[in-house]
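mind reviewing this fold:
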Amino acid sequence: MQSLQFSHWLLVLVQALRVAWALLLRLVPGCGRVRGVGICECEDSLNEDCWRDQLAFRTEASSLLIYIALAGLTCADRLKQRHSVILVSVIALESFLMLPMLLLPIVMFQFLDVFSMFAAALYRVMQAVLFMDGAYQLNDRIYASAVQARRRSISSEAFHGRLALMVSVSLALVIGALIAAIYLCMAVPEVTICVVSAVVGSSLLLLVSITSWCEHGSLMTSSVMFAYNIYLCYQVASIRPRAEEEEIPTTMLGLLVPTLSLAYFAISKSPARHLAGRKQNSSDTTDDFDPNDFLLRCFVHFLADFYVTSVLAPRVSWLRFNIRAATVFVPRSSGNGWCSSSPFALGRSRAFWGEAYDSHWRKMAHRSRRS
């Protein structure tokens, strides 16, 4: 494997295939005469969601094996085939693994149900880092284009227009998050404390990030994390223990969020660099395959697999409810607060709040116009 981008999207493909298998096999009407074998044990189970949950666990196990195999081949320096060969092999392996997975007894997948609670919580924290990095990237690009537009033209309308776009997007995220928070408090009173704490904490960090004291704060990043924290509250509300039994559906929103985070993880090189704790170097500008980068991404997708399972097979218990509620506070305190206050966070140099927030950029633009 020679291409870095190909290796990134290969991992996303494995994730997409397991989701497709889990959703498509739900359409199977039943086992017919084959009863008591493998997943067909669900026909004798009192759990109405047994079939849905077992499909999620079994497709998860197949994709986990593929990630482990890819990581092992990378460590052994055996992943040197052409892209077409690797692609066909991964698709075929994902498909062929489904049959033995469907025939294995239910008891073999019980450990995945327990372990996924903690692994999915860890990925939610990593997902916060991905969204923060994406918001910083977007913030930097828009502001850089605004400065360039002001350098090229005498009028500052283009500059102010781009800044207005950044403020508008940020306000839309905050207002939408506040509306969702109010709705959650009214519809699900059990999560009121979680929602109120998320709103108060996110609001305080947002206010701090736009002050001159927080040199590396970012309005857009804080707004994205504000919305993400409310989304985590929504996830907490979705698995709250109920007085009556009711089915928890697999929502498109639940699948859309990891899709966006993993897609950005595949496109950008900076999140893996930040997770690895290293600075940018010359290798980041090339498309050559990096074994260390690929192993780190395998680990992230490994954890993301458990997160996707929690979406495909949501289970209700007080333990899951409390663990997921705890993830609301971890990204906000250790993630958003860290990136807003640390001068080296995510390798960013400056954020945005109004035209007059940064005299350095103004002086550079002024010098360029004079010259």
